[in-house]
Amino acid sequence: MIGLAFDTLKYSKRLREVGVPEPQAEVQAELLAETLVGLLEERLATKNDLSEFRRDNDVCFTSSDTKMDNGFKAVDTKMDNGFEAINTKIDHGFKAADTKMDNGFEAINTKMDNGFKAADTKMDNGFEAANAKMDNGFEAANAKMDNGFIAANTKMDDGFKAANIKMDDGFKAANTKMDDGFKAANIKMDDGFKAADTKMDNGFKDVDAKFIALETKMETKMDNGFKDVDARFIALETKMDHGFKAADTKMLDTIKWTAGMFIAQTALIIGAIFTVMRMNHSSLQEMRLQAPQAQEMRMSAPATTPPAVPSSAPPSR
Questions:
Q1: Looking at the predicted structure, is the pLDDT value of residue 195 above 70?
Q2: Which end of the chain is more exposed for a tag (fewer CB within 10 A), N or C?
Q3: What count of Cα atoms within 13 Å lies in the side-chain half-sphere of residue 94?
Q4: 298-309 burial code (b ≥16 CB/10 A, e <16)
Q5: What is the sign of the dihedral through the CA atoms of 149, 150, 151 and 153?
Q6: Where residue 45 falls among pLDDT bands split at 50, 70, 90?
Q7: Distance between CA atoms of 248 and 135, rounded to whole angstroms?
Q8: DSSP notation for 225-278
Q9: How would residue 1 be classed by pLDDT, with cut points 50, 70 and 90?
């Protein structure tokens, strides 16, 4: 029995280093070791065999050499066939692995493509639904704002009309009362200018008090009205800011501009009203001061025409 030292571990390690899988390298090393051991045990002669052969037949060296050459050639042929079979098996293994990997990658790519298509479809549907919902929300908001502005304009127009009617009635009553007062004053001036002066002083004091009270009342009422309007506009602006943060900035600018124009116009109107009232009050005071100088003249009622208050409403949206 021949003890052949063939390092299968070293051989399989060399195969793994050149890219052969570990199980295949180990099998190939074991097959090669078995093949070599089998061939050498069957074909190789031991020293005892050679000694015996020399003793028995020294003349057969030539035939023995030939036989050994043939044996080595057969071993080489068998090893070449074995290596060729192993390489063929390795090639088939790599081809099968490549095919399996290609199929796996193709399946993965197909699955990924289908997943991305499904995701794109779902995202497109989601964006379409979101856009439709936003459009409906903006349309409803615009309709609500339009209705609000129309109602506000109508209410303001009615308020200005009522104010104009009330002021016209007030000025007519004041003119009538002044005419009556001047007629009575002319009748009583003949009896005595002192009594007339006293009565006129008392009358003008009462008128002054009434004008001051009326002016204070109107200022208080206008201030409260403006505070209420400001509070409503602030609440409306706050609500719109919270509800439409993503809306167009131009809409908010338009609403702010409209509110500003309304407040400015209202302030101009109220300022004009106060100016007319102060002018009338100043005219009455001048008349009171000039009354004692006209003792030889009959007093005639001045033709006081109430100023026309412009009935203007803020521009509609």
A1: yes
A2: N
A3: 8
A4: ebeeeeeebeeb
A5: positive
A6: low
A7: 12
A8: HHHHHHHHHHHHHHHHHHH-TTS-HHHHHHHHHHHHHHHHHHHHHHHHHHHHHH
A9: very low
- Of 305, 304, 307, 303, whose CA–CA distance to 271 is shortest? 307
Contact 25, 8 (CB under 8 A): no
pLDDT per position as a tens digit, 217-248:
878 987 887 788 688 878 877 887 787 676 66
What pLDDT, on the 0 to 100 scale, is given for residue 313? 46
One-letter amino acid at 85 equals A
CA distance 254 to 276: 33
Do residues 206 and 198 touch, judged by C-beta distance below 8 A?
A: no
Supply the pLDDT for residue 145.
81
10 Å CB burial of residue 178 (0-12, 13-18, 19+) is middle
The yes-or-no verdict on residue 54 having pLDDT over 70 is yes
61-189 vs 22-43: helix axis angle to the nearest 10?
180
- Decide if pLDDT at 301 tops 60: no
Q: What are the DSSP calls for 133-200, one per residue?
A: HHHHHHHHHHHHHHHHHHHHHHHHHHHHHHHHHHHHHHHHHHHHHHHHHHHHHHHHHTT-HHHHHHHH
User: In whole angstroms, what is the distance from residue 234 CA to residue 241 CA?
Assistant: 10
Q: Are 6 and 36 in contact (CB under 8 A)?
A: yes
Q: Which residue from 317, 112, 141, 136 is spatially nearest to 245, judged by alpha carbons?
A: 141
The rounded distance, in Å, linking the Cα atoms of 148 and 143 is 9
Pair of tokens at residue 143: 């309709």
